[in-house]
What we know:
This protein is an alpha/beta fold. The protein contains 21 helices and twelve strands.
Amino acid sequence: AAWILKCYTLLGADDRDIQMGYIISEGLKMLSLVFLSACLSVVLGYLSAYVGSSLSRDIRERLFKKVLSFSPAETDGFSVASLITRSTSDVQQVQMMTVMLMRMVSYAPIMAIGGTIKVFETAPSMWWVIGVGVLAIGIMLFTLMRLTMPRFRLLQNLIDNINRISRETLGGMMVIRAFGSEKRENERFKSANGELTSVSLFVNRVMGVMNPGMNLVMNGTTLLIVLAGARQIGRGLLQVGDMMAFITYSMQIISAFLTLGMISVSAPRALVSVGRIAGVLEAESSIKDGPEDFEPQRRGEVAFENVSFSYPQSPVKALSGISFRALPGTVTAVIGQTGSGKSTLANLLMRFYDVQQGRITIDGRDIRDFKLTTLRDIIGYVPQRSLLFSGTAGENIAFGLESYDEKRVRAAAADAQADRFISSMEGGYGAYIAQGGSNLSGGQKQRVAIARALAKNSPVYIFDDSFSALDLKTDLKVREAIAQRLSKSTVIIIAQRISTVMNCDNIIVLSGGKIAGMGRHRQLLETCPQYKEIALSQLSEKEL
Ligand code: ADP
Ligand code: MG
């Protein structure tokens, strides 16, 4: 180099000018490359954020749609808490992984390949040093993976657990207060929380080894390069500048491998989440839609034919050998002690569950032939627990309607004896109803739930213990209004009170999931001891 410099001076060239020119031109090239790379980084960051959030939005949407199609059997199978974790925390894991993959995986191989090419250009004799570095990283990552992998599934399950306990506690606050069991609940939460923390800490500690480990490998490699390089420089085989360049390139290669490695360490967590999400998306509802082309008549003749059923994971039969008919224009009552299977009857008619033996028909067709939406359009259902939704009173009543119809809503509310109290609320039909209807009393909720079903004008109605929270006078008024309004429909009333059922056209007495008696009031008093027992417990001999 000194000799060439002398030649330049002899030739009259200014070596400072030459050097400066070189530095400026190369420097500008470098600066523009850095600028370009910064711009691309921004674009890449934007794109990956966009793809990540869109992906998680789509996954959440599909999860939600899927869960809506589930029958209670599947929801119970996954558990509500787990379904929530799966559509929040698990989706987030997948989103994070996607962003990371896009940002790094596109970048790391380019750095690795570019670095390798450069290394072979500058000092091919020293590539083995890089080999050693990459190997060290490989061993480190493999160990980390072995340690953390089994913990990841556990981690998501523990989050499920926390969600489950929080849901239960927050939902049951009043009962917890009333029974003074805050301490026990607190303990329960503490132990679940502690478990989650310790697993999470373990995983993070293991991950914490990564950074220092990375530094160790990088500095070790530099040291090796200097050691090996110094010898070659001494022998005049290598220039100092080339050695510095070699160090830079090898750092790039190693950090590229590290990035890839880091992704492969965190990938298992995302994979666990992917599996949990796929589990939901791939689950099929056990309740299948009927064939597309079947258009039912809408007369509303309901028949149970030798129906037997037991709940999933329950060994006892909730219903066995149930047969009866309910005709349009009649009122059928179902009475029986709690746990005798009355609500189960309604659940089967609504196809929340499918019968295991026998069949249920409407107008002579098995209800499994109906499209689910059609079936549920045919039946007006008032559930035992009156569940309302956040929104206005009017919206809650128009819940089953395609569009809001003020006249229908008001008429239904009037028949359900809900008109008076709704009108007296602030805002009337526009009054706000809190989530679950928690700002209404039990009887008010029940009346709104009855109005919601009545507004639908269905050929079949089933009221599952829907008058239980009403006082006797309101109960009577509602039933009178219903009898008038639904005089052409098939009405099934599940009830506890003799006064509610005694004037019905047909009374079914359920006991332990079997029909203990069927007929009219007078007839049953004589033939059915269970009925007589219920009757006598509520009315005196004289009233009967
Ligand atoms: P009723 O409405 O007459 O009070 P149900 O029809 O609700 O009674 O319940 C009938 C039986 O089925 C009861 O013994 C109850 O324990 C059982 N049962 C109800 N729901 C479920 C369920 N989701 N899973 C398992 N068993 C259930
Ligand atoms: Mg019930």
